[in-house]
UniProtKB/TrEMBL annotation:
InterPro entries found in the cross-reference section: Mic13
Name of the featured protein: MICOS complex subunit MIC13
Annotated membrane topology: Single-pass membrane protein
GO biological-process terms attached to the record: cristae formation
Subcellular locations according to the entry: Mitochondrion inner membrane
Amino acid sequence: MAPRIFPLVKFLVKGGLAGGAIYVVYSQGLLSGGEEGAQALRKAQEALPPAVEEWAKYFGWKLPAVPKTEFSLCSYWNSGVRTTIGALSVAPTRASEYTQNGWKYMKDLIK
């Protein structure tokens, strides 16, 4: 009986964790528009360092200082998303071109 219940419990725990993570991400506004996502990112950047310091003190860990970055993570993220979406938008056209070139090459080989 126990071997049959363990996979079910394991599945339910994983599903609960995934569902909870999605709920938190949605409730914090990370799945909404760009401006709301940027606000949520700023909010997380403000709240995370004090929380990490508190946990480090609680466990007695000594963590190095977080390096300061001089670039906008949002702009790099947005450029990556734009590049990916652009590549996906031209994929059917490129696949058609490559198929036509392949057929032309095969016909030339047969002649």
